Amino acid sequence: MYWEDIELGLRSDLGSYTFTEDEMIRFSRMWDPQPFHIDPEAAKSSFYGGIIASGWHVAAVWMKLMIAHGRKRAAEGIVSRGGVSPGFREMRWHQPTRPGMTLHYDSTTHEKVELKSRPEMGLIRSFNRGLDDAGKPVMSFIGQGFVQRRPK
Amino acid sequence: MYWEDIELGLRSDLGSYTFTEDEMIRFSRMWDPQPFHIDPEAAKSSFYGGIIASGWHVAAVWMKLMIAHGRKRAAEGIVSRGGVSPGFREMRWHQPTRPGMTLHYDSTTHEKVELKSRPEMGLIRSFNRGLDDAGKPVMSFIGQGFVQRRPK
After folding, report:
1. Inter-chain contact B32–A60, Cβ cutoff 8 Å?
2. Does B15 score more than 90 pLDDT?
3. Who among B33, B89, B90 is closest to A67 (CB)?
4. Distance (Å, rounded) from C-alpha A26 to C-alpha A37?
5. Strand partners for A107
6. What is the pLDDT of residue A93?
């Protein structure tokens, strides 16, 4: 799969992930130790009324599922020639992720960019989401990844 | 510290963090298992020529240091009435983070936003960076946080 082969508007279902209170607390103790992420008692009297996942945890799960999806595709013979990202845009946490919630992640290609600075690569922008069981967004962001161009 | 008390242009030094290959591999095995993040041998023949930290790891360290900074300020009696974020913008990874590199993180307030939708809160936007020893950017993004307004 070179940059040329990537189809705009293609939605990839990345699968689902259930957030346990245990994992939420473990992640946040290390990276985001705010009371409403790590302390069930203190979280009760917080803005959120209970433990919620760190937004960085919700985002990291997207990355994890994206890599697993790429592996699955590679096993089917569809190898992406990408992996390198210059960063991303517009990370939004639309609603809190609470213990026991299952998020459904997807990624839709929406821009293909040719680069003067890197003629051997193209940039792909994708719109990425984590949805709750009702299909309402919990997290979204615009991802970016370089993909090799087909050699001429 | 209510929203009204926050000064624009104030730079907070969040401290430094040294990335070990061990921790880089441990983080990425869980959240971003790409060969150039987890496999020293495979990384050698990758685009990067060696193991680099996941960009999500570089960002998570910012969060960790930001919380530690808030705790230190709280111990000095300066309690921020914030912590809730709707998301962030323009995450950029400017250069790879390699084993043994030390990044120096900071955060500078640059926008105060009044909200019709949440009159009891204001939004603070900050420009956040992780710099290498030479002061060149490794990571940057625009953070956003709600802060309570002073009761009238």
Report:
1. yes
2. yes
3. B33
4. 9
5. A12, A128
6. 96
pLDDT digits (tens, 9 = 90+) for B68-104: 999 999 888 887 777 789 999 999 999 999 999 999 9
A90 chain-B contacts, CB cut-off 8 A: 87, 89
Please say whether the beta carbons of A105 and A128 come within 8 A.
yes
Which among B19, B31, B62 is the top mutation candidate for probing chain A, defined by the most A β-carbons within 10 Å of its own β-carbon? Answer: B31
Hey, is the C-beta of A85 within 8 angstroms of any chain B C-beta?
yes
**Domain ranges within chain A, ordered by starting residue:** 3-148
- Nearest Cβ partner for A31 among B60, B83, B86: B60
- Tens digits of residue pLDDT in B120-131: 999 999 999 999
CA distance A102 to A125: 26
For B3-148, CATH number out of 3.20.20.140, 3.30.300.20, 3.10.129.10, 3.40.50.300 equals 3.10.129.10
Nearest CA in chain B to A84: B47
| ipTM value for the complex | 0.91
Closest by CA to A16, choosing from A76, A92, A106, is A106
Mean pLDDT estimate for chain A: 94
